[in-house]
Model the fold of this input.
Amino acid sequence: MEKDPLIIAGKTYNSRLLVGTGKYSSEKQALEAIKASNCEIVTVAIRRVELDSENKSDSILNYITPEKYKILPNTAGCFSAKEAIRIACLGRELLNGENLIKLEVLKDKETLMPLMSETVVAAKELVLLGFEVMVYCTDEIDYAINLEDIGCVAIMPLASPIGSGQGIINPDSINKIIEKISCPVIIDAGIGAASEVSVAMEMGCDGVLLNTAIAKSNNPVLMAEAMRDAAISGRKCFLAGRIPVKKIADPSSPTKGIVDS
Amino acid sequence: MTKIKILLNGESREVPEDLSIKELFKFLELSEKHCAVEINKEIIFKTNWDKRLLINEDKVEIVRAIGGG
Done:
């Protein structure tokens, strides 16, 4: 297959699978799974250093290094634009000025659904501050268009609630976003199985971002491989162009020359 | 040695007077690598860590990256 890179904010990536680094049982397991996924972009969260911890000087960035991976800090745990902007700025500072950010502003701790009014406010401000904003959002087309107009570099609608593993619950809404949005559309959150990654890619999504589906599987390394293969397979299917769905059967073998009984 | 009181990552702490941020890391026996610092909600760039001295009642946040999705 010819090269088919994913381009985000002018940078080229060969992998269309983006992987989170949370919920693993150990650092070793996280690193092995991330390696197996072949991803190039990994998300991290920004939190206070636990000053009373024995391992207070340990950092995930010591083993998942910015030299090897594009580190995408998120604003997870923020419930207002103000908080998200603050965390984004801290993330940029600790990554020595890297501008790429995954913006998420959540409605509440129970549903973890995006709070779109505040997401839009934060996106506007972050773009003005020079950030390259990959934005976690609902699958509502009007917001997706608005966020692209603001200058976000990737629109990342949820497939279903974070960590739920329900897969793509509104394919029609995702299709509309793919159709109308020019920048990369990356499915973010809600994926449970490799088939769902494949479906997202077959639909024409530019990438998939997932975390729990790998980290909480029984075998994260094997699941990371499955997700990697599914992203590649789904993308190939999209590029090859699937056949239209027909209401009636259409024989695969010639109907002419059938041996009479 | 005179001490001052700061709020560090949400907890009240006593630290020596005239401590720079760089010295605060030493005082805490904490590696500076991959950390960011905010004082009173204003980011202090690494280049200024040796210049900014802590003063009484500063609200200091030291953050780092951890696993997340």
About this structure: Chain B touches chain A through 27 residues (CB under 8 Å). The mean pLDDT of chain B is 96. Residues 25 and 32 of chain B are 7 Å apart (CA to CA).
